[in-house]
Amino acid sequence: MTGGSRPVAAELEVGQEVARRTVGVDRARLVRYAGASGDFNPIHWNDRVATSVGLPGVIAHGMWTMGAAIAVVVDWAGDPGLVVDYRTRFTRPVPVPDPGEALVEVVATVGAIDAEAGTVRVDLAVAVDGVRVLGKAQAVVRLV
Amino acid sequence: MPVDITFAGRVYPPGDVYVVSREKLREFAEATGATHPAHTDVEAARALGHPDVVAPPTFAVVIAQRTEAQYVEDPAAGIDFSRVVHADERFTHHRPIHAGDRLRAALHVDAVTVRAGLAMVTTRCEIADEGGAPVASVVSTLAVRPEDAS
């Protein structure tokens, strides 16, 4: 159904921006992610616990941020099964205010093209208020 | 208790079968804002050649963190979760994970190092189907801050 609009490796260039999205995250979303993932660490839903360990307050699960960022690549690739490798470092926490939300900006660019393997490395710049929160976030996507 | 570096090299064999369900994939996709229809719509997934709905690329963390628990929650390992920061994570998919998959996961403690009081713990979760065919590999590194640091 989305096959007609899938990207083709031969038409891509290194450095090319392929997708961009801003994703909002509020406390309710963190509770939802905790339930969906099974990660109930209270620093992701309890201000008292978060501040007691030196955080400014409740922070997003790093794995939530990593998961939200790759959705941008999946939609661009057209098939979730095409992401064969995905890695990141967690460089800065994402504080999530209450009330309100944190806005996570995701920009995906072509980092490398391996024509022989039929794969493209997509580099993800993931930032909150202009400050990177993920480091070296890279997804390898199989394209035809 | 400090982080016990002698755990490095340990292997925990696969435990119970994890059965991947459509509803769990839907919950995970909705929580992470993964709106691609192949995560939730069987017909959309089949149109792409999948046997059933497809997991988001980070879904394997659900299985990995359950598997890691037998090590990181072992008091003898010395990992105090109030001092843990997630340092990095990597997924390698040998094939997509689908609803209906019956998966088992072995845990490898690849490295435990301590430098200037900061411990770095790297685990690798090898997820396979019931026949032993590899499905995904999940490598995770935790940083454990020293007890006297704030």
Mean pLDDT metric of chain A: 95
Biggest interface: A-B, 39 and 41 residues
Taken from the alpha-carbon principal axes, the silhouette of chain A is elongated
User: How many distinct beta strands of chain A?
Assistant: 6
Average pLDDT figure of chain B: 96
Query: Which range does the strand content of chain B fall in?
Result: 25-35%
User: Approximately what portion of the residues of chain A adopt beta-strand conformation?
Assistant: 35-45%
> What is the CATH class of chain A?
Alpha Beta
Sketch the major β-sheet of chain B: 6 strands, antiparallel
Overall form of chain B: elongated
Examine the coordinates and then state which fold CATH places here, giving the name of the CATH topology of chain A.
Thiol Ester Dehydrase, Chain A
Spans of chain A with pLDDT under 50 lasting ≥5 residues? Answer: none
Oligomer: heterodimer
Distance between the termini of chain B: 17 Å
**CATH homology superfamily name of chain A:** Hotdog Thioesterase
**CATH T-level topology of chain B:** Thiol Ester Dehydrase, Chain A
Corresponding CATH architecture of chain A: Roll
Distance between the amino and carboxyl termini of chain A:
16 Å
**Runs of chain B with pLDDT <50, length 5+?**
none
Q: How many domains would you count in the coordinates of chain A?
A: 1
CATH superfamily of chain B: Hotdog Thioesterase
